[in-house]
């Protein structure tokens, strides 16, 4: 199962504030500024329900998904409860001071932007644009019928127009400029697109991985440029995406972050959030964290059940997901995500 959890997951935010921006943003309890909102892009690790009304099999708005959320209602989250974007947007109560800032404390759950019942008061504090089974490779969402990361950016632009209409241009710019942005993508490209002859004929695995890093760079540049454009009012928010312009380059993730920071986005703080190694540690030492089952998911047989193959009629579904490292054949349980995030100790 762990092999399916390869992630390219990055945070980026702008920690510099103008006096005008400070007047528009709430202050934290300790007197310093906190992030006014969170925006999530990418795949099912962050998706809170954007696939519900898409023509795709990559959806989970049915039982037993979501059974451990308040009310036990399936919302389209790929898990038994909260997903990573929810955990980050909400403060986790652990009883240990060093974990006090493990969540942003903005709201309980991060709503999906495509939720038809999305309320205006939810917009200023952030929404989720991520789409399960999406990826950086444009072939991936084409196959799965989900939102490409660049379609997610188009929805972000649409969101900004709505936000400006609700709270005004000045406050909208302050929120966009100073919020936290979370991106998780790449695993579906490897799992889905790279398994096809069309990709394997042109790329060995190292060159395909390099291509994904190049695509990630293009996406992040567009997202950061869009954010800066909205915040400053300057023209030309982003160059257009072109698959022919995606030349593979052999740079690791740290190199990508350094390049982005040192070239055009010196005011941005970019952090790589490693999901793989915390999950690897949990797989190798599950009992240290109280997990009893790490080789199979809770839902169904735990080996192939995911999305529509994990449903209320799936036999052998466990009764207590907290004992399991994985909820279905791919996605960690909420408890595993909580523990994995604590292991990060990332200074956001």
TrEMBL record:
Alphabetical GO CC annotations of the entry are: extracellular region
CDD domains, alphabetized: SGNH_plant_lipase_like
Could you tell me which InterPro entries the record lists for this protein? Answer: GDSL, GDSL_lipolytic_enzyme, Lipase_GDSL_AS, SGNH_hydro_sf, SGNH_plant_lipase-like
Recite the UniProt keywords alphabetically: Hydrolase, Signal
Q: Has keyword Signal?
A: yes
Q: Name one GO biological process term.
A: lipid metabolic process
| Molecular function as annotated in GO | lipase activity
The UniProt entry, under PROSITE patterns, shows: LIPASE_GDSL_SER (PS01098)
Q: What Pfam families is this protein classified in?
A: Lipase_GDSL
Signal peptide location? 1-20
Q: Which PANTHER family match?
A: GDSL ESTERASE/LIPASE EXL3, GDSL ESTERASE_LIPASE EXL2
Give the similarity note. Answer: Belongs to the 'GDSL' lipolytic enzyme family.
**Protein known as:** GDSL-like Lipase/Acylhydrolase superfamily protein
- What species is given as this protein's source? Prunus dulcis (Almond)
């Amino acid at each position: 199962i762990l092999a399916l959890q390869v992630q390219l997951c990055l945070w980026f935010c702008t920690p510099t504030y103008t006096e005008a921006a400070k007047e528009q943003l709430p202050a934290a309890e300790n007197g310093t500024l906190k992030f006014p909102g969170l925006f999530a892009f990418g795949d099912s690790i962050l998706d809170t329900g954007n696939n519900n009304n898409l023509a795709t099999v990559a959806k989970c708005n049915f039982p037993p998904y979501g059974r451990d959320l308040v009310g036990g209602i399936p919302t389209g989250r790929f898990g038994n409860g909260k997903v990573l974007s929810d955990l980050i947007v909400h403060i986790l109560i652990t009883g240990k001071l060093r974990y006090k800032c493990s969540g942003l404390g903005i709201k309980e759950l991060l709503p999906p932007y495509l939720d038809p019942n999305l309320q205006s008061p939810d917009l200023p504090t952030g929404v989720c644009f991520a789409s399960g089974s999406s990826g950086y490779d444009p072939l991936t969402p084409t196959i799965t019928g989900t939102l490409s990361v660049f379609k997610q950016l188009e929805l972000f632009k649409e969101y900004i127009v709505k936000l400006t209409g609700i709270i005004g241009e000045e406050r909208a710019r302050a929120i966009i400029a100073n919020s936290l942005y979370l991106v998780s993508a790449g695993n579906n490209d490897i799992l889905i697109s790279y398994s096809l002859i069309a990709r394997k004929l042109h790329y060995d695995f190292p060159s395909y991985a390099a291509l994904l890093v190049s695509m990630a760079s293009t996406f992040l540049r567009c997202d950061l440029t869009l954010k800066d454009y909205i915040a400053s009012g300057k023209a030309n928010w982003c160059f257009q995406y072109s698959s022919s312009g995606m030349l593979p380059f052999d740079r690791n993730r740290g190199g990508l972050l350094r390049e982005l920071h040192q070239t055009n986005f010196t005011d941005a703080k970019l952090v790589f959030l490693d999901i793989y190694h915390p999950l690897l540690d949990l797989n190798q030492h599950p009992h240290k964290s109280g997990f009893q089952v790490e080789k199979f998911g809770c839902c169904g047989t735990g080996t192939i059940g995911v999305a529509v193959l994990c449903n209320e009629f799936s036999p052998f579904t466990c009764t207590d997901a907290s004992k399991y490292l994985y909820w279905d054949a791919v996605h960690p349980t909420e408890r595993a995500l909580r523990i994995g995030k604590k292991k990060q100790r990332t200074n956001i």
